[in-house]
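Long-time lurker. I teach an intro course on protein structure, and each term I like to show students one example going from raw sequence to a predicted 3D structure in token notation. This year I'd like something fresh instead of my usual example. Would anyone be willing to generate the tokens for the chain below so I can use it in lecture? Attribution to the forum is fine with me.
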Amino acid sequence: MIIRLKSIHANVVNESEVIDGSKISALIKVGYSYNKDKKLEIDYHISLIQHNKNVFVVKINYLVEETVNQNNEKDMLDKAVSQLEKRIELILGMLCDEIGINLLS
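-- Reply from a regular --
Happy to contribute to a lecture. Here you go:
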């Protein structure tokens, strides 16, 4: 299955907060839609949270390059999300490192 990145938007939301990587949690929401060519798009909305405040927000959009029909929609979604898991971890780790959040502490 070919899945390509369409867009990524990242924002540091709370710059004044002292960030402690050991107290960071992530809220990940995954959604999907179809574009005008009826290809599947998968959307990730990831919020890194410390003390109930957003510290960092990332929105990532992927396009699945295979045709999806009603009979295989659930299987395609499951397979795509599974394939994207490591990619999301790498992107999130790299972005956190860039703003000084050490998630491995």
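Some talking points for your students: The mean pLDDT is 86. Helices lie at 73-99.
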